[in-house]
């Protein structure tokens, strides 16, 4: 591993030892990176110039570069486009709530899951992010705004459970008291339903919230929207959710994107309620963000309300997701996609 921002304290101690430094230097290094969120070795003033030079040579420090920031005039939501060391771009979102600032981060460059209504997956998967690149999204936004981040959602571009090891490392590091010290209970990880890794995550006994992208009341409709559903049935996915609750005691969230005429009827609500009734869960209804490359439309306001009311009649806890940043490239992957399209147009033939 050459990404120093992905290293835990024990690994940094090994680095210091290999470079002929005292072990306590590792703690200083860790604090500069994960508490003070510096963007270069030059800022680490209590480390010798010689040590910093060696670090720069062997473990280059690459903070994310801000390419573009869109700020909503409606609610102050900010969408960031960051450039990685290799020239790829990712996006992250800062949302301000009364309970604190929440940052939604990406876990991969692109995505291979192919969900039909999502801009993130157009173009497929380029590569997974390191834990350090995931952390950096939170650090750069916090440094850019000068405000503390209290909640993190791994729900941007990419499938977090398709980047399992980096995700788990990220969770341990972002919640480390020696770093940002964000409570695991304030972390949410979204998955489209990779069943073996859902079960594996349950056995980690983390205190994070697992959010399942469900988006349909039955297998047939789910397969039409989400290719992953060809591999794992709804019964398998929901069994993995029950196992997650059994192992962690953490209530599940079901994300349900309402697509006009596809999965938003009263019959769909009845079927969904039958599948999840009795589970310790919360349903988050999301009026889908239309994207140019797909012909899906969002459900009407009345349809959304009726769907919510039907679920509540079954005793299911449900909310309609408050739309944030409606006047900017709000949907996952939209800002990155538009940037890539513009860049390609400017390139010579």
UniProtKB/TrEMBL annotation:
Q: Which InterPro entries has this protein been placed in?
A: Aldolase_TIM, Methyltransferase_A, RlmN_N, RNA_MTrfase_RlmN, rRNA_lsu_MTrfase_RlmN/Cfr, rSAM, rSAM_sf
Q: Please give one Gene Ontology molecular function term for this protein.
A: metal ion binding
Q: Where does the record place the Radical SAM core domain? A: 97-327
- Annotated [4Fe-4S] cluster binding lies at 111, 115, 118
CDD domains in the record: Radical_SAM
| Localisation per UniProt entry | Cytoplasm
Give me the residues that bind S-adenosyl-L-methionine, please.
Answer: 158-159, 190, 213-215, 289
Q: How is the cofactor bound?
A: Binds 1 [4Fe-4S] cluster. The cluster is coordinated with 3 cysteines and an exchangeable S-adenosyl-L-methionine.
The cofactors named for this UniProt entry are:
[4Fe-4S] cluster
**What positions does UniProt annotate as the active site of this protein?**
91, 332
Keyword annotations for this protein, in alphabetical order, are:
4Fe-4S, Cytoplasm, Disulfide bond, Iron, Iron-sulfur, Metal-binding, Methyltransferase, rRNA processing, S-adenosyl-L-methionine, Transferase, tRNA processing
**Which cellular components does GO assign to this protein?**
cytoplasm
Q: What else is known?
A: Reaction proceeds by a ping-pong mechanism involving intermediate methylation of a conserved cysteine residue.
Q: What does this protein do?
A: Specifically methylates position 2 of adenine 2503 in 23S rRNA and position 2 of adenine 37 in tRNAs.
Report the protein name in the record: Probable dual-specificity RNA methyltransferase RlmN
Q: Which organism is it from?
A: Candidatus Fusicatenibacter intestinigallinarum
* Gene giving rise to this polypeptide: rlmN
């Amino acid at each position: 591993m050459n990404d120093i921002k992905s290293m835990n304290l024990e690994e940094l101690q090994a680095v210091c030892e290999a470079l002929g430094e005292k072990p306590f230097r590792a703690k200083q290094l860790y604090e500069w990176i994960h508490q003070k969120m510096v963007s270069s070795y030059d800022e680490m003033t209590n480390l010798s110039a010689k040590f910093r030079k060696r670090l720069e040579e062997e473990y280059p420090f690459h903070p994310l570069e801000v390419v573009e920031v869109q700020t909503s005039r409606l609610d102050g939501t900010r969408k960031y486009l960051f450039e990685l060391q290799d020239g790829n771009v990712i996006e992250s979102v800062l949302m301000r709530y009364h309970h604190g600032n929440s940052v939604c981060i990406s876990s991969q460059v692109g995505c291979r899951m192919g969900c039909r209504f999502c801009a993130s997956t157009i173009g497929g998967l380029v590569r997974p992010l390191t834990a350090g690149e995931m952390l950096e999204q939170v650090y750069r936004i916090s440094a850019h705004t000068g405000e503390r981040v209290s909640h993190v959602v791994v729900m941007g571009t990419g499938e977090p459970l398709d980047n399992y090891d980096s995700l788990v490392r990220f969770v341990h590091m972002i919640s480390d008291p020696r770093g940002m010290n964000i409570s695991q209970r304030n972390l949410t990880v979204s998955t489209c339903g990779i069943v073996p890794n859902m079960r594996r995550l349950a056995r980690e006994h983390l205190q994070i919230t697992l959010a399942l992208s469900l988006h349909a009341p039955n297998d047939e409709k789910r397969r039409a929207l989400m290719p992953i559903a060809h591999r794992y049935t709804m019964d398998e996915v929901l069994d993995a959710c029950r196992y997650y609750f059994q192992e962690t005691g953490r209530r599940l969230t079901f994300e349900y994107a309402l697509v006009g005429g596809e999965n938003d009827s009263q019959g769909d609500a009845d079927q969904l309620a039958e599948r999840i009734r009795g589970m310790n869960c919360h349903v988050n209804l999301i009026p889908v963000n239309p994207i140019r490359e797909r012909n899906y439309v969002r459900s009407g306001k009345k349809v959304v309300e009726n769907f919510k009311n039907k679920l509540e009649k079954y005793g299911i806890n449900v909310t309609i997701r408050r739309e944030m940043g409606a006047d900017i490239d709000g949907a996952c992957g939209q800002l990155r996609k538009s940037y890539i399209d513009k860049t390609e147009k400017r390139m010579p033939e």
